[in-house]
Amino acid sequence: MKHRDISLSSEDRGGCSISGCNNSTKRSIPRKRVEKIGELTLQDSNRKVNLCSDCYRIFKKATKKDRTMESLGR
Ligand SMILES: [Zn+2]
Predict the structure, then answer these.
(1) Interval between CA 20 and ligand 1 midpoint (Å)
(2) Domain assignment of residue 3, yes or no
(3) What would the pLDDT profile of 6-23 be if each residue is shown by its tens digit?
(4) Residue 43 belongs to what domain range?
């Protein structure tokens, strides 16, 4: 019998990558960008992060705040 690799990545499951959230995903975002804001806790280590609409809203809000801080620094 051949050994079969079972993928546990959420990319294949199609669920949200945020810890404690299991909604279906709407957007795929590079992991770095999500880690940078620090508002969302990732439950896997994929390079791409899948976000549901709720988590994407949090992400968007956080990046907006980041951008505001950037413009204030100028
Ligand atoms: Zn989510």
Answers:
(1) 8
(2) no
(3) 555 444 556 899 999 989
(4) 13-73
